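This protein record is not my work; I was only asked to verify it. Take the sequence as given and treat only the tokens as open to question. I have pasted the whole thing underneath without changing anything:
***
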Amino acid sequence: MYLGNLKERYRLPLLLRFSENMSDRQIAQILKVPRGTVSSILSRGLKMLREQIEKEEKGCG
């Protein structure tokens, strides 16, 4: 539900990490971006998911 609300830039790396259990290095190779970029995208994506969940829990969503 929440993952579907994210832009693909954030959704795909999160799916690869948590559904396919891929490393930052593997995700970087697939997306053709530096490994540091993958780490940043994953961090931001997780933050966005947390914010969506918190908003929903507070009844604002």
In short: The first helix runs from residue 8 to 18. The mean pLDDT is 93.
